[in-house]
Amino acid sequence: MHKVHESDAPAAPPISFDQFLAVDIRVGTIVAAEPYPEARKPSLKLTIDFGAAIGTKRSSAQIAQLYQPASLIGQQVAAVVNFPPRQIGKFMSEVLTLGFPDEHGNVVLIAPDKKVPNGGRLF
Fold this sequence. Notes:
By secondary structure, the chain is mainly beta. Helices cover about 10% and strands about 35% of the residues. A five-stranded antiparallel beta sheet has the order 3-2-1-4-7. The protein has a two-stranded antiparallel ribbon with strand order 5-6. Strands 8-9 form a two-stranded antiparallel ribbon. The longest helix has 6 residues, at about 15-20.
């Protein structure tokens, strides 16, 4: 039986440009990363620097299948910074780090292909 991948799903219904602008996606640099073995899915706890205006925020990201904590330090990532904080076990996740699923459903992080200033907003 053929497994259905998220890449096979149709596009979501149309939204307005104002709805897109309501989602605040920023770039930040990972300054700390550590295992989070208590999470239900293999996760890492990230500390991400989004620059002076937003500051440093924490995120629980289900990326432990493909990433080692030490290799993430200094890497830039994209994250939604205007969702309310979410309790993930004993950890308070303040931003949603973004990624795409690989062919096995593991999360591959989104990053700019050139270094950009922390806090830059996606448009």
